[in-house]
Write a structure and sequence with these properties.
Length: 290
């Protein structure tokens, strides 16, 4: 097949544009990785680009061995998994309920939708959680707020409403309960949407740090993102005070900061290629009917 001159020019321009975009995304990451393992003198003299000057893994080793880092990692994993599962369950059951007809549906629907546009604000929420619910400095403020997402409930409800009513009616006639209809018919039919929404919940909770700053004061409750914030902005090396950790003269604060950034970003970078297909399926499921 012969390619026209205009088509060839378009392909060349498109290649350079895409290459430039990839370079803009990848090169900062390569610089961070290079700084994390480079020699301290090269870092102080601003000699490190995308190629490391020397190779020292002490910053990674001491960060991983730090008790605060390990606790933060465990907290992030546990909170993310529990939050994502609970949020998906709430979202699925609420969206299925809103897809059915029941008394007061319109009023309750408006009540939910209003929360998308108006909220109590940070100070009333803080007072509610800390003073009236006595949940300050616990895991509950990191888990419960945001568990109900009206936007995703509406998205999932629209998917459920596209399922032919004859399927659910036939199951009910055969004696199936509402829970049987939900788990055997509805959920298998909207798996791509559930998977996509679940990944959004996971990424949102994994990257959260503000709620840790507001509602906790104990390092044992830190998440990985708040640990990273503390390392980068407060210049605090997260080591156990009761342990005597030897710091080599070739390791600087910049090594620890960049190593922390790499370690925090690594789980998402590794998992993203395997879950990217669910985002695409979820988007296509919302745009194609029938």
């Amino acid at each position: 097949m012969k390619v026209s001159g205009g088509r060839r020019v378009f392909q060349i321009i498109n290649f350079f544009i895409m290459f430039s975009i990839c370079a803009v995304v990848i090169m900062p990451f390569m610089h961070i990785l290079a700084v994390s393992v480079s020699d301290s003198n090269a870092i102080r003299n601003m000699e490190v680009g995308i190629i490391p000057k020397g190779f020292y893994t002490n910053a990674y080793q001491e960060t991983i061995e730090s008790g605060v880092f390990l606790r933060s990692l465990i907290n992030s994993v546990v909170l993310t998994v529990v939050y994502a599962l609970a949020a998906v369950i709430v979202c699925v059951m609420a969206s299925y309920a809103f897809s059915r007809k029941f008394l007061g549906k319109t009023v309750i629907n408006y009540y939910f939708v209003i929360t998308m546009y108006f909220s109590g604000g940070l100070i009333p929420t803080y007072l509610l959680i800390s003073k009236y619910l006595n949940m300050y400095n616990t895991f509950w403020p990191l888990l419960l707020p945001g568990l109900v997402s009206v936007f995703y409930i509406i998205v999932m409800r629209s998917q459920i409403e596209q399922i032919p009513a004859s399927l659910t009616e036939a199951a009910i006639i055969d004696g199936a309960s509402q829970f049987r209809v939900l788990f055997d018919i509805i959920i298998p039919s909207i798996k791509p949407t559930i998977a996509a929404i679940c990944m959004f919940f996971i990424l949102g909770k994994w990257n959260s740090w503000f709620d840790v700053m507001v509602y906790t004061r104990d390092k044992k409750l830190w998440t990985l993102q708040y640990y990273l914030r503390s390392v980068v902005f407060t210049k605090e090396l997260m080591k156990e005070t009761e342990q005597a950790v030897h710091v080599s003269t070739v390791i600087t604060d910049e090594n620890y900061k960049m190593a922390a950034i790499i370690l925090v970003a690594l789980p998402v970078v590794c998992v993203n290629p395997f879950v990217q297909k669910y985002f695409v399926k979820g988007i296509l499921a919302g745009s194609v009917k029938g």
